[in-house]
Design brief:
Length: 247
């Protein structure tokens, strides 16, 4: 009513102004925006549902898919390329399995520690805070801290001083977790220096957002190990050639 400048007490004026507003095309923008939002939402839900169904089907038939994949590689690749491809696929499988398993384990440990100590110090919403921190820890580097800040704000709504206490408690827990738990649970599965982890997280965030931050670390780990193996072989070949030349 404010948009069409109509007097709510005069029904005829309201109807006339509303009809003029629709005729002028102003309603098309609203209808178009609503249609676009609904279309995008249903498209996203449909794509997600199809992806989950396809993933479940592949999971139940993984032995057949893997067997036929290796069969085709043996048929169309040379023996040397086949061995190299199998090695790369095994490296990718082991790296991703170790990284995802280690990350999930670390998230559960961190969530349990937050729940336990928050409950021990009688901080409200201890269970909710632990769940938030555990989910946030799936995102490398800053995910757990961001989740802890959100949890602290929720706690501060009830008791402001308790929100501050929770942040202090989380910092203490994260120091122990980062120095003792994370290197043993996740660090060994990654196998790359910390500087490369930061590069992987930065590139992943720019390329694919949160999913990129999560999955670029094992991708970088695979590339790092493959380049390291190739460099070692090249150095070994050069050393042999130099040794033959010296002889």
């Amino acid at each position: 009513l404010r948009t069409i400048n109509a007097d709510p007490g005069n029904i005829s004026q309201v109807l006339e102004s509303l009809f003029s507003w629709v005729i002028s095309g102003s309603a098309n923008d609203i209808i178009g925006n609503v249609y676009s939002v609904l279309t995008n939402t249903f498209s996203l839900l449909f794509s997600t549902l199809i992806s989950i169904m396809f993933a479940v089907i592949v999971l139940f038939n993984k032995q057949t898919v893997v067997k036929e994949g290796f069969y085709l590689m043996r048929a169309y690749l040379s023996k040397k390329r086949y061995a190299k491809t199998v090695h790369i696929l095994s490296l990718i499988r082991n790296t991703f399995t170790s990284y995802i398993g280690g990350t999930c384990t670390e998230c559960i440990i961190l969530a349990t520690l937050v729940m336990f100590f928050a409950s021990l110090f009688q901080i409200p919403f201890a269970f909710l805070a632990g769940i938030l921190v555990g989910i946030g820890a799936l995102i490398p580097m800053f995910g757990a801290l961001a989740a802890a800040i959100i949890a602290a704000l929720l706690i501060a709504v009830d008791t402001p001083i308790e929100g501050l206490y929770f942040i202090i408690l989380f910092i203490c827990i994260q120091q122990v977790e980062g120095n003792f738990i994370y290197p043993n649970v996740v660090g060994k599965s990654v196998g790359i220096p910390p500087i490369y982890v930061m590069i992987a997280v930065t590139l992943g965030a720019n390329v694919a957002g949160i999913l990129g931050m999560v999955f670029f670390i094992p991708i970088f780990s695979c590339l790092y190990q493959l380049i390291k193996e190739d460099a070692s072989k090249r150095i070994e070949i050069k050393d042999k050639k130099e040794g033959l030349l010296n002889e």
